[in-house]
Amino acid sequence: MTTTESTRTTVVGDKAPEQTFGPISITDIVRYAGASGDFNPLHHDDAAARKAGFDGIFSIGMFQAALLGTFAAEWLGAANVRRFTTRFQEQVWPGDVLVCNGEVTAVRPGDGGSVVEVALTCARQGAGVAIAGSAEFWLPA
Predict the structure, then answer these.
(1) How many domains does the structure of the chain reveal?
(2) Which of 99, 84, 118, 90 is nearest to 11 (CA)?
């Protein structure tokens, strides 16, 4: 949904169109590491990750959080975001396909628009939720 579409009447239970990302590649993970400056070897050095007790390298949690934030902003408009929170729940591995979903949980009318609260998830396809979150948007009338 674009910013223009977000000005329509929004009600509790409205859902965002599901969006998928991936499969997540090692290149995706390393590119995000470069952009964020997070060069923890667990995210790019397979031997270091295995030595630390993991099955191999895994994605940086903030990468999934960024995908979820982008998903939410594209749904109800980046200019309308007032709050965005996330909770890391499960690791993401190379090869995972991520599925983002959102649902309106509350709408409060205000002068000239509405405050809209949404619940958000970024799940590993066929597995658990990697990132759960929420956001608040101001949607002008």
Answers:
(1) 1
(2) 118
CATH assignment of the domain containing 78 = 3.10.129.10
Note whether residue 50 is domain-resident.
Answer: no
User: Each residue of 1-53: pLDDT tens digit?
Assistant: 444 444 468 899 999 999 999 999 999 999 999 999 999 999 999 999 999 99
- CA neighbor of 81 nearest in space, from 132, 1, 138: 138
* Portion of the chain with pLDDT greater than 70, in percent: 94
How many other β-carbons are positioned within 10 Å of the β-carbon of residue 14? Answer: 18
Query: Is pTM beyond 0.85 here?
Result: yes
52: CB partners within 8 A, 6+ apart = 42
**Residue 113 belongs to some domain of the structure:** yes
Report the amino acid identity of residue 70: T
CA triplet 76, 16, 27: central angle to 5 degrees? 90
Tell me the C-alpha distance between 59 and 57, whole Å. 7
Within the chain, where are the H helices?
A: 26-36, 46-51, 61-76
Please give the residue range of the domain that contains residue 123. Answer: 5-24+61-140
